[in-house]
Amino acid sequence: MALSSEQGNRFADLLKGHEDTVIASWTDEISRTVRGRLSRAELQRQTSELQKGFQTALSGGASDLNDDAAAELRAQLTELSNTRARQGFTANETAVSVFALKEAVFQVIKGGEDADTATLRDYIGFSAFVDRAALFTFDTYVRIREELIADQAEQLLELSTPVVKLWEGVVAVPLVGTLDSARAQVVMERLLQTLVDTGSPYAIIDITGVPAVDTQVAQHILKTVVAARLMGADCIISGIRPQIAQTIVALGIEFGDIATKASLADALRHVLRLTGTKRQER
Amino acid sequence: MTTWDGAAAAERVAITSDQDVVRVRQLVRTLAVAVKLSLVDQTKIVTAASELARNTLVYGGGGNAEVSRVDNGRKPGIRIVFADEGPGIPDLDLALTDGYTTGGGMGLGLSGARRLVDEFEIDTEVGKGTTISVTKWCR
To answer: B106 and A219: CB-CB below 8 Å?
Structure first.
């Protein structure tokens, strides 16, 4: 049941007339769900702003949340979802912040003497309007959370591919997890750049943390090795566990003349032997 | 989480993106652990699943994988059926030759996957699609 503009106006007047009461009981309602994670003063500020938003939208003749008159209100709801999502509130807690307005307004109507059928019919229209506002908040919340997840996935890509200096002239890339094309590209770029920056003649690619080496992963690693060689650096692949070795043999992947070792320690020892660095025996 | 109780327990995954290849791999690994395959066999079936799932995506244009627990009366095992409705494989012998590829890969995926499993069945028709069934038994 859509809200007519007369009904909207009546509710705008009601919100204005009982401003303090509505804000107070609305704030009470929300503070019960957020349980002390937001101060009462903060909530009161938010609800009074939202109350003005609803009031303006309704007196402007908005019968639906998508109307032009409700543009300001939509912006406010988006802002609310945004802060709630980033502060770690659940979708439920966020939507309740809007739904609570219905309860607050109902209290006002019940307290008045004119709680007749007409008022209740008005209330149903108003209630539908608030429902749509709450659902809008919910949608916005989900969208913002998805953006957050996408951002984090991007950050994870950066985080999970460090290139570390292991020894003078030796850098290592510990690969962890799934090596898809996007990550392989990041790994290659990082490694080649580090080789230039540090002037290292040796690079160790450690695949201990890669759960399965299929042809795609192998191809990415081989390409990285070839690229490093073109720049004059020698690559060693380490972290080849027994099950990975057997799988690579069965698949028929050839690593050619690339040095491979079972552990990172073996690989480092191999490089140090090549460079003639003497170990300090204790 | 899926429980793999009955012999008929099967789970179907649609393969439409790279993420789905990862999901197939994880599902296969979970089941491989559940049927108590050895670590080497787990890695082999997971790798074979990874190859075939990617083939389904890249050459079959997407499809689905059905992962199920099987039992031949003496020992349990794991079976994965990959199905797509892509262009099919015109020359199967050539496709199963090591090093032959029509894409940019190493040409070892299909032939390598066959060596990684105990049973390998392929059913393909040009213009209709390809279905590949692989099984790995517990030893």
So the answer is: yes
B60 neighbors B130 (Cβ within 8 angstroms): yes
- Given CB atoms, is B116 within the 8 Å cutoff of chain A? yes
Q: Are B83 and B131 in contact (CB under 8 A)?
A: yes
Across all residues in chain B, what is the average pLDDT? 90
From A242, which residue of chain B is nearest by alpha-carbon distance?
Answer: B40
Q: What is the pLDDT of residues A164-175, one digit of tens each?
A: 899 999 999 998
Q: Distance from A260 to chain B by nearest Cα, in Å?
A: 19
Q: Is B42 on the interface with A (CB under 8 A)?
A: yes
Pick the CATH number of B10-137 from 3.20.20.70, 3.30.565.10, 3.40.50.2300, 3.40.50.1110: 3.30.565.10
- Which residues are bridge partners to A172 per DSSP? A164, A204
Sheet holding B76-84, edge to edge: B10-15, B63-71, B76-84, B129-137, B119-125
Indicate if ipTM > 0.85. Answer: no
Nearest CA in chain B to A178: B22
Strands (E), A195-263: 202-209, 234-238, 259-260
